[in-house]
Design goal:
Number of domains: 2
CATH topology of the largest domain: Beta-lactamase
Strand order of the largest sheet: 3-2-1-16-15-14-13-12
Shape: globular
Helix content: 25-40%
Distance between the termini: 38 Å
CATH architecture of the largest domain: 3-Layer(aba) Sandwich
CATH superfamily of the largest domain: DD-peptidase/beta-lactamase superfamily
Strand content: 15-25%
Order of helices and strands: HHEEEEHEEHHHHHEEHEHEEHEEHEEEH
CATH class of the largest domain: Alpha Beta
Number of strands: 16
């Protein structure tokens, strides 16, 4: 071998060593956590350097005292390539945010409840067009509210007419049943009054009997309207399975998927990892709303109210494992909860052009998930056919089957829509795709 060849071989070896060291450095930044398979970003078509931009953007929100802390996770092709914990879990005590911090996930409970009901579907308990009154007779004779003419409003804001058809299971899963809710609609005041009647020891079944007495905001299937429909989903699971929703989730979903930190009510032994809840003051700076203590309603309430619409606490690890199961077509590490065809049915648009006002234009709704239907109006880098949902305390996840991608953001802030934490996470994730 001549001297030129020798120098060339040495140079190639040095470059290879540097590249390998760089990749190992990137991998070393990922936590070693059971149940979280990791890989260098470059091995799945992403850039480690570009993924680091997520941390920079999130740190900006923390430095401006707009959110206390955040956990972010990105996975592609079944491998976690970004997993970061920044800021503080509890700013008052100075406790740092950790990868295994436990968050109130609110409406991110809904996809789990929807999967549970579709497991009942696969066991032959119902068809999507079946009326829910078959299992919940309190919804047998629903009425629809229509505005009273101006000259008659001295006797009431609305009058009622019989529903033209029954509320179906599909309408409950897609939020098209017309149920009274806290967001808007002619029956909003009555819903808020009903909600105030909930007492310690009540069950979701107790609440639904009161809800069934309120008229619908529109004819079943006529429009899309967000609300407590997924509490009906959870109650249907209970009636069909003979278990409480808590028992069903644990024995049929959480234990099989090794979701060890997902609960309706947090064991006191895990309080040290529970996150504080914040809200913005008049200047947009965080102030404490709920301390992560034993008297939190997520710990101390009578353990009877299992809300499929929004009752769970969880971690980034656990939620990743659940959504990876869905992305895999209903299976994770040899454990199958659903068939591929059922997952396909859940993650397509069931609502046509009704409009999903909460998500905005460019979205439809499937069975428990919002669906990206048109990239332009949706103003998102997520692929058409991606599905997602979010939580009232600033959390969000999305699943992009085309890119084999999962993104998760967990923070504890309400309200949160004055910040771009969640859309920033999406744009910072997709700009890191390099294949």
């Amino acid at each position: 071998m001549n001297s030129s060849t020798t120098k060339w071989c040495v140079l190639v070896a040095l470059v290879a060593t540097c590249v390998t060291a760089g990749l190992r450095g990137a991998a070393a930044d990922l936590p070693e956590m059971d149940g979280v398979p990791t890989a260098e970003a470059e091995t799945v078509g992403m850039s480690s350097e570009r993924l680091d931009r997520i941390d920079g953007v999130m740190q900006g929100y923390i430095d401006r005292n707009e959110t206390a802390g955040v956990v972010t996770l990105v996975a592609r092709q079944g491998k976690v390539v970004h997993f970061s914990a920044q800021g503080e879990r509890d700013a008052e005590s100075g406790s740092p945010m950790t990868h295994d911090s436990i968050f109130r996930i609110a409406s991110m409970t809904k996809p789990i409840a929807s999967v549970a009901l579709m497991m009942m579907y696969e066991e032959g308990h119902f068809q999507l067009r079946d009326p829910i009154s078959k299992w919940l007779p309190e919804f047998s004779d629903v009425q629809v509210a229509i505005p009273s003419p101006p000259q008659e409003r001295v006797t009431g804001r609305y009058k009622t007419i019989p529903a033209e058809g029954p509320i179906t299971v599909q309408q409950i899963l897609t939020h098209t049943a017309g149920l009274a809710n806290s967001y808007r609609g002619i029956t909003q005041p009555e819903f808020l009054e009903m909600s105030a009647q909930t007492r310690p020891g009540d069950t979701v079944g107790d609440m639904l009997k009161r809800l069934a007495k309120l008229p619908l905001n529109f004819q079943p299937g006529e429009h899309w309207e967000y609300g407590r429909a997924t509490d009906i989903v959870g109650r249907l699971v209970e009636v069909m399975s003979g278990q409480t929703l808590d028992e069903f989730f644990k024995t049929r979903i959480f234990d099989p998927l090794d979701m060890t930190d997902t609960h309706f009510y947090l064991p006191e032994s895990k309080l040290a990892r529970f996150t504080a809840l914040y809200g913005p003051d008049a200047n947009g700076k965080i102030v404490l709303s709920e301390a992560p203590t034993a008297d939190s309603r997520y710990v101390a309430e009578p353990h009877t109210y299992f809300s499929g619409a929004g009752g769970l606490v969880s971690t980034a690890r656990d939620y990743f494992r659940f959504q990876q199961m869905v992305l895999n077509g209903g299976e994770l590490e040899g454990t199958r909860l659903l068939s591929r065809k059922t997952v396909e049915m859940m993650t397509v648009n069931h609502t046509g052009d009704k409009g999903i006002w909460l998500a905005g234009p460019g979205y439809g709704f499937g069975l428990g998930y919002a669906i990206v239907t048109d990239l332009g109006p949706a103003a998102t880098p997520r692929s058409e056919g991606s599905y997602y949902w979010s939580g009232a305390f600033g959390t969000i996840f999305w699943v992009d089957p085309k890119e084999e991608l999962i993104g998760i953001v967990l923070q504890q802030l309400r309200p949160y829509t004055h910040l771009n934490v969640r859309p920033d996470m999406a744009s910072m994730t997709y700009q890191a795709i390099i294949d």
